[in-house]
Structures are given as C-alpha cells and as structure tokens.
Amino acid sequence: MKKKQTVVVGVTSGIAAYKILDLITLLKKDANVVVVMTKSASRMISKEEFEEASGNKVYIDLFEENFDYKKVLESRQVDHIRIADMADVVVVAPATANILGKMSYGIADDFLTTMLLATQAQIVIFPSMNVHMWQHPAVVENIAQLKKQGIVVVDPAKGALACGYEGKGRLPEVQEMHKEITQLLNKKTFLQGKKIIVTSGGTNEYIDGVRFIGNRSSGKMGVAIAEACFLQGADVLLIRSKTSVSSRYDIGQIVFETADELLHILKKEIKKYDVLFQAAAVSDFSIDDKHSKKIDSKKNIILKLSPREKIITQIKTWYPKIMLIAFKAVWGGSEKKRIKEAMEKLQESNVDAVVVNDVSKKDRGFWSDENEVIIVKKDTTKKKISLRSKREVAEELVSFLFSL
C-alpha cells in the first residue's frame, strides 16, 4: 500500500483562518496533515480544533514548557526540523502581510518561520488581507521576492472582504486551494527527462523611441502549458514577453520584447531542447523606416509595414529533431474552417502539431482565463477541447500530444 504523503499547513492570523479547518478535512482524504500555527492564529481559533480536524498534534511554540535541551542533544531530534523534513508540500494559509515579510527576508522567530526556512519541500502560499495592504509596495516587493525563491504564490480572489472593503484580498475558495495543493502532491514524472521550451506573450514592434505596435496576447495560455509540463516532471524553459504573465512555479525563464529578440533567443537555445511550444503571438509585420527618437505628434505620419519571415517556418531548419507545436489564432468562422487552417499551417510550417483557437470571442483567448482549442497532429489525428480554464486546456493538450 502506498504511503500517504504529508502536507504541513501553516496557519497565520488572517480572519479567514477558520476556512482552513474545511481545507484540512479535504486534504485528509489523501494525505497526512500536520498543522503549525502562529501564536496570533491560536488566539483566533483554538489549536484543539485543528488537532481534531487533522488528527495530529498542532505545533505553535519553538520552546514548549517541558523543553529540555539535554533531551534534544541525546535524541538528535528537533521538532521544527522533523516537521520540515517530513513535509511533501508546505502550505501557508491564510498568509498575512506579516508572514510574507518574514518569509521574504528569512526571519525565523517562531515555529512556523523556522520550519519554513528548514524545509526542502515545495511551499505554496495563499495570501489574504485588505485590498490596500495587498497593493502596498512592500507587499508587492515581498511577493516578487518569494516567487524568485521558487515559492508558489496563489493570488487572492476578488470580492467582499471581512473588513467591509470590496476588492482583491479574499482567500480563494477551499475547493480551489485543495486543487492547487493536490496538483503539487500529484506532480507526475511522465515527462521526466524531457526538455521543453514554451514561448508566450506578444511581441512589440517599435515605431520610434517610445511608441510601438503590439498585440493583445497576455501569455496566459503559454504559461499554463509551461506549468502543465513542469508538473509532469519536464525540464521547462519559459521564454515570455516583457508584458506577459509569469509562472507561479520555479520555472526557468528568459524575457523578450521584440520578434527579433525572440528569434535570437530561440536560435541560441533550441538545440538544447526536445520540444518547442511556439505559443507566443509574434508580429507578422516589421516596421520600415523606424525612428530612433520620438516622432513629433503634431505631424501626420505614414507607417509602412512589411511582412516578416515567420519564426515558426525557420525552427526545423535550425534543428530538425525538435518536436514543434505551433499555435494559430483565427478570427471567427466554423469549426471546419479552423481545422482547414490548422492543416494548412501543418504543411507550410513543417510542424508536428497545430493548436488553433478563435480569438473573435470575448469569453476566450486573449486576456481571458478560458480558452477553446482544436489540436491537429501531423498524422491528422484531432482533438477538440471545449471551453474551460486555460489550465485545464493545457493539461488536456499536453496529455493528448504526449499520449499520457
């Protein structure tokens, strides 16, 4: 029988701490749950409630009343290190502004913060606070630092807050938190050994020293694919545009801005990898007669655009062995028409699969959190993934392409 994994849940004194009792109930179905609380949290909800929910002792104090350093030296066991070592995933929820600051700067002044420094497990945090606190520059900076450390940060939800404000700061629903944690627990190894590049976001083509022509790509689909591959054990490089979203996971990344920069990066990196998802929205045009300075806004100007050679058609000439997946955005039309355009893309670009989606609808594609796609492989096998979250689309897409 497979041994249960262990989730260590760190509870801080956010008002939403009561929700973590329900989260523990869900987690206990598949995992051993150990709770660590801050002293402030224990003043809001008793540790006995969490002990009853988890079935395990709750840890609060580094030095309990019966602490004896001689026993520690004899047994060579320290509780916060033992808990840190037994964790498969560490959760901090709700994560207050206070704990974010401590984690960011490596402050270890209680059981929870000391355990967090000691663990080698993946840490995922669910911040929850007043909307103005969430937007404070210090909190923004701390979040950025935690992401650099490889900590998974799940943004709070929008809605009515306990303080009476409306905005971003709510703890996500328990079911959503459970799904995030379960994904990390269930990180698989189907793609272990595979080296995968995913490009995401849109390119900018400069008109003058300050202005550019761009497109509406957010990079959300590309990031979702990078994360899906990462969670299947692949070694992933995310090449994303400067203005696109970043990953919540510890995925290597290179940032680009123009199509020429993307081309240069790919040409340099491509031979180190097995698979390329070319999900970035690359400009089809370059601008002739670019101005190095700012153009006088009082004058009329005429822009001349020239078609640029598509990066996707050059990939296989650089490295024929690469498995290449192209993305095609279409505007309206029937499903039959989208499949036809995908087939044409397969031929003209010498790719192994094409993912096509309709970008004419507001509820999917650009900047939306949802998408609907049709995948056509080189062997003409097809799969339609109906409208759902981009994360779910990415999971199905990866499974289909690699026959998982």
Q: So what's the overall shape?
A: elongated
Report the biggest beta sheet as strand number plus sense, adding barrel if it closes: 8 strands, mixed
Q: So how many helices?
A: 15
What's the number of domains?
2
- Unreliably modeled segments: none
Structural classification: alpha/beta
Explain this structure:
The protein has 404 residues and is α/β, with parallel strands linked by helices. It has 2 domains: 5-185, 3-Layer(aba) Sandwich (Rossmann fold), CATH 3.40.50; 195-402, 3-Layer(aba) Sandwich (Rossmann fold). 34% of the residues lie in helices and 25% in strands. The protein is built from 15 helices and 19 strands. The strands form 5 sheets. The protein has an 8-stranded mixed β-sheet with strand order 12-11-8-13-16-17-18-19, with helices on both faces. A hairpin with a 4-residue loop joins strand 18 (370-377) and strand 19 (382-389). The protein is elongated. It starts with a strand and ends with a helix. The model has no long low-confidence stretch (mean pLDDT 90).
